[in-house]
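Reopening this ticket.

The earlier resolution said the output was attached, but the attachment link was broken on my side. Pasting everything inline this time so it's all in one place.
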Amino acid sequence: MAWIVLIISGMLETVWAIALERSAGFSRPLPTGIFAAALVLSMAGLGYALRSIPVGTGYVVWVGIGAVGTALVGMIALGESASLPRLLCLLLVVAGVVGLKVFH
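Inline output:
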């Protein structure tokens, strides 16, 4: 169960990162509210997961999911560059996250 919560929390990190950008410095109420809710839920889930997953593994998996998710949303929905080198770097992050899960 901790791994499922950790994965969901990592996805919520993507939500709050995108909402933070969309909030325009906390000047737009809806994205600011989404940011705050997703941040609290993401941190709560990470805290729950770290009760049974080592902090080094859990934190890196959480950050990796959030970073890759945020980069993909940027590429797919926000018009950021989806160059081959960027995609290869994201693949390396995914490989590292999977490796930490496998060798946990």
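Reporter confirms the inline version is readable. The two ends are 15 Å apart (CA to CA). Helices lie at 2-22, 29-49, 55-77, 84-102.
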